[in-house]
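Feature request, filed as a ticket because there's no other form

It would be nice if the structure record came with a short human-readable summary line next to the tokens. Right now we just get the raw output. Example of a typical job, pasted below so the devs can see what we mean:
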Amino acid sequence: MLSRSEVVLLSGAAGRNVEAVKESLVYLKHETDVWFEITTLLIPDENDSDHELEALTQWVVEALGTDVPVHFSAFHPDFKLRDRGRTPLDTLLRARAIARGNGLRFVYTGSVSDTATGSTWCPSCDTLLVERTGYTLGTWGLSGAHCGACDAACDAGMLCDGAGICALSCQTGLSDCGGTCVDLARDSANCGVRRSKWKLLGYGQP
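Raw output as currently delivered:
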């Protein structure tokens, strides 16, 4: 069985058969142990209104809970849809603020360079847990699966399966992390296989 799935969920008129996607998400959450995250591509004047963002994020909280990572990605004109401009960063920040205001604890911006909103912060004390600039990791504030500052549990991802077996398949040949995968996770240059657990509390695959 797959250990992770990333679902692209488009709200409003941009979505095709959104209800079927929602049903699948509810099934994944309540009937399986599949790890999943939700990505919504925000297209200017298509699905980026406050009303749509409120409805989408409220539904996620009510149906899936507060810990499901949600990503808001920027649109850029390409292929067959070139009559819209790029999604402004302000739109992504507005979407993130709405999602957090509705209770979602792990909300990210995507397809833009913004370290603050692409990183993971402790929902309890707001300490920086996993700093990301593009695919580069910076500050590491985790202690195992807990915040290194306040010891709050951070459940939006796994670094290790709990038995000391590293979740990453790396060219280093290392397969046993002794219970911590932090060093391997930092060493992104050695990761030659895209593995599901590379998500690292919301981090996209390299």
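Something like this underneath would help us a lot:
The CA atoms of residues 9 and 29 lie 15 Å apart.
The first helix runs from residue 18 to 31.
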